[in-house]
Amino acid sequence: MQTSVIVVLSVLGALPCILYLALRMISSPRPVRIPFANRHVLITGGSSGIGFELAKLALLEGASVSILARDIARLNEAKVALANSTGKEVRVFSADVKNLKSLSNVATEAGPIDVLICSHGVAIPKTFEDSSLDEINHMLDTNLRGNLYVIKAMLPSLKNRKDNYPASIAIVSSQAGQVGIYGYAAYSASKFGLKGLAESLQQELHCYNVRMSLIFPPDTYTPGFDKENETKPELTKLIGGINKISSAEDVAKKAVDGIKQGKFCIACNFDGWMLGIATMGMSPQPSAINAFAEIFLVGFLRLYALFITWSWYNTLIKWERKKEKHE
């Protein structure tokens, strides 16, 4: 009897090791390291906010950096600021991410690209009913179509890069691109689509040794953050609670670290890491360790997510009752 118990316990103890070894074989695509030094990094939305901080880190990593935005004056200001803080020069390109022809011209002028980071974006938080059609289209065109156009224009430059090291296309999404929340219907729609884009492109570009990454920042101090708060519904603020707001520098550091490791899903804080596991679905996973954690934590995190959504709807109910009393 005692021998049987020992055998059963030994088998149970060996199962995690067997599972981990199996995950090392099937985790796809395979793990890689993506260098920045002596390579060309092009960053959209690079004149301010997260994009500016990404450009600074890429320069400090030894990359040749190009930044793209619409406003040439802000681009030149960013160029001076980056030179002052890093001692290195960047190239600047003025283009609208909604204009494919303009982006194609930039791609031709910029030359081969090794790392493309799409950091542009716009958020106008309002209820869907209160959002104008122009505001909805602006978010969809900038956040979704803008990424489609940028990648479409720059893809030949990535495929024609000069070295044989892995390349990367990284897209700055949002935690609102992982879960929908009151006041972000149109914005979330524009960001949710990026996951399908990245998952599909990862399969298409695997043979070219190009890795896709999705970056999911939480609320972050950027020039646009205060403007977002001007239109953000009160109920959105209540549901969000008192969350710690990240700095653009911290988000950029986590993003660069994740890109260099070839991660598909790049979280920028602990909540984002948990949310990433809870919403992973069929996304690629190069890391066997992360795959192991996902398998064992997904059930618990689903339970945790149910408690979170319960708290949101509880807030909604209280809000509705409060409104009824004042009407």
Summary?
The protein is of the alpha/beta class and 327 residues long. The protein has helices at residues 2-26, 49-60, 72-86, 100-110, 133-159, 185-205, 225-231, 234-240, 248-260, 270-278, 288-326, and strands at 40-44, 64-69, 91-94, 115-118, 167-172, 210-216, 220-221, 246-247, 265-267.
Write the topology of this structure:
Blueprint: H1 2-26, E1 40-44, H2 49-60, E2 64-69, H3 72-86, E3 91-94, H4 100-110, E4 115-118, H5 133-159, E5 167-172, H6 185-205, E6 210-216, E7 220-221, H7 225-231, H8 234-240, E8 246-247, H9 248-260, E9 265-267, H10 270-278, H11 288-326
Parallel strand pairs: 1-2, 1-4, 2-3, 4-5, 5-6, 6-9, 7-8
Helix pairs in contact: 1-11, 2-3, 2-9, 4-5, 5-6, 10-11
Counted by DSSP, the helix tally is 11
Helicity level: 55-70%
CATH superfamily of the largest domain: NAD(P)-binding Rossmann-like Domain
CATH class of the largest domain: Alpha Beta
Intertermini distance:
73 Å
Tell the overall outline: globular
Q: In total, how many beta strands?
A: 9
Strand content: 5-15%
Summarize the main sheet.
Answer: 7 strands, parallel
How many domains, as an integer?
2
Give unreliable regions as ranges.
Answer: none
Query: What's the architecture of the largest domain in CATH terms?
Result: 3-Layer(aba) Sandwich
Report the C-alpha radius of gyration, rounded.
22 Å
- How do the strands of the widest beta sheet line up side by side? 3-2-1-4-5-6-9
Q: List the secondary-structure elements in sequence, H or E.
A: HEHEHEHEHEHEEHHEHEHH
Secondary-structure content class = alpha/beta
- CATH fold group of the largest domain: Rossmann fold
Mean pLDDT: 90
EC number: 1.1.1.102
Catalytic activity: sphinganine + NADP(+) = 3-oxosphinganine + NADPH + H(+)
Main location: endoplasmic reticulum
InterPro entries: KDSR-like, NAD(P)-bd_dom_sf, Sc_DH/Rdtase_CS, SDR_fam
